[in-house]
C-alpha cells in the first residue's frame, strides 16, 4: 500500500505545484525484530532477546540485511539532490533497496497498482485519519 500511497501523494502534490516529493522503498530481507512478529512468531521471540551484534551475525548467516544496511536506500533517497524536485529521482517511484539506487527504480506493471486503487486507498486513509466532519472524497483532485 505504501507504493500506491506514495505515488498518489506525489501526483496530488505535483498537480498543486508543490515542491513536496514522495517515494516508496523496499528495504529487502532484513534481520529485524518487527518484520517477523506475525509471519514467524518463534523467530520473533528469539530476536527479542538478541543483541544488535547477534542480529548482525544472523543477518550474515541468512544472507539478509541488518537494519542499518536496510536503512541505506531510504536515507540515500531522502538526502541525495536527485530526490529533490527537478533532480534525478522519479517522483512517486518505487525503489528497491539494492545499490546503485538510481538504477533500481521499479515502474513495471503490478496488477494491484492502479489509479483507482490508489484513489480508493487515499480516500480510505482520509476517512481513517481525519475527524468525520472534515473527511471528504478527493477523487477529483
From TrEMBL:
Protein name, UniProt field: Uncharacterized protein
Lineage of producing organism: Eukaryota, Viridiplantae, Chlorophyta, Pyramimonadophyceae, Pyramimonadales
Source species: Cymbomonas tetramitiformis
